[in-house]
Amino acid sequence: MSRSQPPGFTPTGTISTSTDRRRVVFATVVGTTVEWYDFFLYASAAGLVFGQLFFAPAGPGIAQILSFLTVGLSFLFRPLGAFLAGHLGDKYGRRVVLMLTLILMGASTTLIGVLPTYEVIGVAAPALLILLRVLQGISAGGEWGGAVLMAVEHAPKAKRSLFGASPQLGVPLGLLLASGMLALMALIAPGDAFLAWGWRVPFLLSFVLILIGYYVRRKVEESPVFVEIAERKEQTRMPIVQLFRKHALLVIIAAFVFAGNNAVGYMTTGGYIQRYATNPDGPLGLATADVLGAVTLSAVSWFVFTWIGGWLGDRIGRRNTYIIGWIALLVAIIALFPLVNSGSLALLTLGLMLLTVGLGLTYGPQAALYAELFPASIRFSGVSISYAIGAICGGAFAPTIATALVDLTGTTVSVTVYLAIMAVLGLVATLLLRDRSGIPLGPDHEAEQEVSPIRGLSRV
């Protein structure tokens, strides 16, 4: 059947000009950076100030656990965001979802910046904080799938992993920006001033960043794969139903690929290391600004190795890049707490930067890996829901689990064992998948895409 192609698109479903490709890459990096700045800003603040400001009546130890629990609570609502975004993204397009998630995340973060504390409005303060964090979780659950599909579905076949790394780069950039802003405010408003008002400034800055992200994303065209599906009026009526009817096992395996990376990554992005290293009643008691500076440096390293992971994914395949990454991550996990517990800021920084080698190599190729696992008609639902479930199994309660393990055992060795188990689960899940690098992504190839990527299975 012949049909007209959208202006500017080639029959292979990729943008025909390098200018448009650069615009897509820039827009996905900027948008995801703003989204994850907001998300990580909350996690860092949960480790540094929220326990004292919103949960103090529970007592110092319990207050901190409750604060970390609010970080994890938002992950329980990521699947809701993924379900909503997957349904909308597979029926109405990737672009509209990206605009909605950006606005929701920015509004929630800005409101946290003006939220009264427990001392001012009592129990309503933690209740409102939790509500705003839930909205952040819904936004994060919908954001990732749309961003990675815009990047991967626009990309040339030989550079999908590198293009797909562009929204992944927004994660370390978001961490860098969040940690950098908090570190700056800790220097400008140290001690009680940081607790009183300094932490609020980075949250209020989100309003400006959202306007920038919205402007940039408005300039990007819809994914060519979805344009082709829409032209043919072949959108799936109930994409989520189709996903779980045919691909439930694949969703679970893909989720565990991400869970291993996410659990380890949330030692810093979830605020655990920040709290552990700066706690005045803990074994280290390092200065807040110094530790935030170390986290900021590690974010730079994470950015570099995420880009390298995306580049390697096109050279040696997604699966091989992951396997190298898991090995590097296991080595870094074993080294992490001996370096942190040395009490040396330089060694703590080294430990965090070593961790980012494996984190980057198991994150850079993820967008391409996920996009190539699912058929075009349900791809948004597949990648979003797999990612959301992986986040729940991985990073959602990693800081809470780590805090509880140290309280129970009195040693960080228990945290090392926990993180190593999660990394091994990620490695096993990776080994269960075939490498589908370069598989056609368009709707004309759904029969090929329906062949199971799970090793040992020939069909869904």
From TrEMBL:
Pfam families: MFS_1 (PF07690)
A cellular component term, taken from the record's GO annotations: plasma membrane
Molecular function as annotated in GO: transmembrane transporter activity
Keywords: Cell membrane, Membrane, Transmembrane, Transmembrane helix, Transport
Transmembrane segments: 62-84, 96-118, 130-152, 173-191, 197-216, 247-264, 284-308, 320-339, 345-364, 385-406, 412-433
Segments forming domain Major facilitator superfamily (MFS) profile: 24-438
Domain of life of the source: Bacteria
InterPro entries reported in the protein's UniProt record: MFS (IPR011701), MFS_dom (IPR020846), MFS_trans_sf (IPR036259)
Membrane topology (UniProt): Multi-pass membrane protein
Location within or outside the cell: Cell membrane
PROSITE patterns, A to Z: MFS
Stated name of the protein: MFS family permease
